[in-house]
Amino acid sequence: MGTINKKQTRSLIKAFHSNKHIIIFPAGEVSKFRNFTIEDIDWNPSFIKKAIQFNRDIIPVRISGKNSILFYAVSILRRFFKMDFNIEMFLLIREVFNKKNCSINVKFGSPISFKTLNRHMINSETNRIKNITYSI
Q1: What is the DSSP secondary structure assignment for residue 19, as one 8-state letter?
Q2: In sequence order, which residues have a C-beta less than 8 Å from that of residue 120 and are 6 or more positions away?
Q3: Which residue, 13, 26, 109, 27, is CA-closest to 56?
Q4: How far is CA 76 from each of CA 19, 32, 54, rounded to the nearest angstrom?
Q5: Which of 35, 54, 64, 114 is most exposed by smallest CB count within 10 Å?
Q6: Measured between alpha carbons, how far is 119 from 92 in angstroms, rounded to an integer?
Q7: If we measure between CA atoms, which residue out of 126, 130, 132 comes closest to residue 46?
Q8: Which residues pair with 38 in a beta bridge?
Q9: Is 54 domain-assigned?
């Protein structure tokens, strides 16, 4: 779930104890251009662990959209030159404003019960839910 501070951690734990809906982006960042396609980086399995720990079902949500060629080109160049600093994130505001009059599709999958999640195969469950989400 990315790097968060103590106050954010307390707020998140409080939310998990409530009946509130919680939105988690398991990749932790914007999809990247890799392997000649736009895809997420590896998903962090912590959302599976939290679903099991707090008896919370998971509803897969697929958000379809694309950033500009410039955004992906900067990302490719940064990785090519082995730069750690994620400079393409500075382009995100530009990307949002470039999407005026564009559509973004949001699709919801069927709920996945926390009871069906195997706590001994967290990485496998993470990949299974990623595949379900991508198939929506």
Answers
A1: S
A2: none
A3: 13
A4: 41, 9, 38
A5: 35
A6: 36
A7: 126
A8: 33
A9: yes
Residue 82 lies in a domain: no
pLDDT in tens, 62-110: 998 889 999 999 999 999 999 988 888 899 999 988 888 888 899 999 9
Dist CA 12 CA 49 (whole Å): 14
Domain count, the chain: 1
Q: Is residue 13 part of a domain?
A: yes
DSSP string for 28-87: -S--EEETTEEE--PPPTHHHHHHHHTT--B--EEEE----HHHHHHHHHHHHTT--S-G
- Which tens digit of pLDDT belongs to each residue from 2-51? 567 888 889 989 999 999 999 999 998 888 888 888 889 899 999 999 99
Nearest one of 10, 26, 27, 17 to 58, comparing CA atoms: 26
- Residues with Cβ within 8 Å of 65's Cβ and at least 6 positions away in sequence, in order, are 99, 102, 104, 105
User: Is residue 124 in a domain?
Assistant: yes
